[in-house]
Amino acid sequence: MTSNTLFYLLIAIIVIVFLIDSLLDILNARHYNNNIPDELSDVYPEDEYQKSIAYKKANYKFKLVSSLISLCIMLLFFFLDGFAWVDGIARSFSDNPIIVGLLFFGIIMISSDILSTPAAYYKTFIIEEQFGFNKTTIKTFFIDKIKGFVMMIIVGGSLLALIMWFYEITGKYFWVYAWALISVFTLAMNMFYAKLIVPLFNKQTPLEPGELRDTIQEYSNNVGFQLKDIFVIDGSKRSTKANAYFSGLGSEKRITLYDTLIKDLNKEEIVAVLAHEVGHYKKMHVIMNLLLSILLTGVTLWFLSLFIANPLLSEALGVGIPSFHIGLVAFGILYSPISEITGLIMNVVSRAFEYQADDYAKNSYDGEALINSLKKLSKNNLSNLTPHPAMVFIHYSHPTLLQRIKNIRK
């Protein structure tokens, strides 16, 4: 294969992935006006249902336009030798391959984030604002951006520097050390994310003593779930949308409730949602997802080690000096079809886990309370009740509301 052939193969992969995603969005959009199944007839009043359709259409049009603009920018970058240009800028500062790689990815990532900021701003302050979801101030929006930049530089830069250092000293065996590093980092994030990262963006406070906390504690004791902490996060600082999640492992496990969830649901419905989260823990889904993620990371890094030293990758992107960072960009695009397949498999597994967690909540607490909570959350989030089956199969990590209700009531 010549470098020119590889170049057009990379272009073809980018365009084909875009076309497949766009086709799925178009198919999904044709289902927006479908009749609501009888089981979901009480989710939306008619005016709210029409609002949900308008919200879906607004997001659909926004995604099509923004993704098309992103595709055009990317293709221009390819055809105008943008990678060679950025590589030249990075090399003008240093001859050290690690520093060059960090500067290269720093320029690419920060430039990409800046270019995507207008779209993110429009989605937050036009679409989400129009439909009553947005609670983010302009100040908070840009402070979040700055914090994201800082975290990307410190955390992402440190990990990338170590991986490139492993490559410099071990050659093709770097993937073993990189795998160990990323595995440790992934485990640490699973255990301490709520303590280290979340406080940078949100305020977390212990759930106040009272009837809700007592009911949650009673349920936890009944099912043998040793719950150390129950926290409330100020999700209303940014959005009216509600959520709850389980985080941590071992003695570090905790349950976090969005303040919007406490506002939208009654006591029984909140406990049913928590019973679902406890089900994930009891069924070992957290551990299995962690192990699957680590395994897929190892496979990806091994594949990377087979190709990264091939100068053809750099030549295809118009860069004369072969390097780890240019090879990583080309490999990332070549690997994207495989990544789409592994992502699909992970979604299939995730949907199976969601059914199991729902079953656990039904058997250990109250299935109808869980159904009521799911309906309220779907209504309040203007969720799509009639998605296209292909969209569900490929992109949904959770079953649809109708599928979950049928499973709970079967």
TrEMBL record:
Task: Give start and end of each CAAX prenyl protease 1 N-terminal domain.
Answer: 30-203
The Peptidase M48 domain is annotated at 207-410
Main location, first listed in the record:
endoplasmic reticulum
Residues annotated as binding Zn(2+): H276, H280, E354
Which key words tag this protein in UniProt? Endoplasmic reticulum, Hydrolase, Membrane, Metal-binding, Metalloprotease, Protease, Transmembrane, Transmembrane helix, Zinc
State the Gene Ontology terms under molecular function. metal ion binding; metalloendopeptidase activity
Q: Which cofactor does it need?
A: Zn(2+)
User: Coiled coil as a keyword?
Assistant: no
Give the way it sits in the membrane.
Multi-pass membrane protein
State the family named in the UniProt similarity comment for this chain. Belongs to the peptidase M48 family.
Query: What's this protein's name?
Result: STE24 endopeptidase
What is the source species?
A: Aquimarina amphilecti
